Amino acid sequence: MTLVRLNQDMFPSFNGLFDNFFSTELNDWRRNNFSQDNSTLPQVNIKETKDSFEVEMAAPGMDKDNFDIQLDHQLLTIISQKESREQVENENYTKREFNYSSFQRSFHLPDSANADEISASYREGILCISIPKKEEAKPRAAKSIAIA
């Protein structure tokens, strides 16, 4: 029986993607990622396609106006604030309920991201952010080179 050691350098693009996207978020958790009411932060899915990075954040019950998405030097920050007030008046009492919630999540974009073309949409409780890749970062077809 032979033991085989996995070489971590075999998958540089996979490792690079996660290093660029997630390392600072975890190391700088308190400053860039928080929930004001100590609830859990919305879950995020990040996938890479040949042309872009796709970020999906589960945020049900929100409106698109509750979000503020900012980009500052390759740091993508998603901020959400929601306030709701309810007042019920009866002849014997008045009941008021206030609810405030907010969160912030930040992600460092890889150098291959085209920051000028980022777009976002909110549908059915999911915030979707599309981050296109720069042309030079997209995969290219194999090219045959003539020998002179």
Category by helix and strand content:
mainly beta
- Sheet with most strands: strand arrangement: 1-6-5-4
Q: Return the average pLDDT rounded to an integer.
A: 78
Number of strands: 8
Query: Based on CA inertia axes, which overall geometry fits?
Result: rod-shaped
**Beta-strand share of residues:** 35-45%
Proportion of residues in helical segments? 10-25%
Number of helical segments with 4 or more residues: 2
Distance between the termini: 50 Å
Largest sheet: 4 strands, antiparallel
Question: What integer value in Å does the Rg equal?
Answer: 22 Å
**Run of helices and strands:** HHEEEEEEEE
Low-confidence segments: 6-15, 22-30
Explain what you see.
- The chain is mainly β.
- The chain is 14% helix and 42% strand.
- The chain contains two helices and eight strands; from the N terminus they run H-H-E-E-E-E-E-E-E-E.
- The protein has a four-stranded antiparallel beta sheet with strand order 1-6-5-4. The protein has a four-stranded antiparallel beta sheet with strand order 2-3-8-7, with no helix packed on it.
- The longest helix is centred in the N-terminal third of the chain and has 16 residues.
- It is rod-shaped, with a radius of gyration of 22 Å.
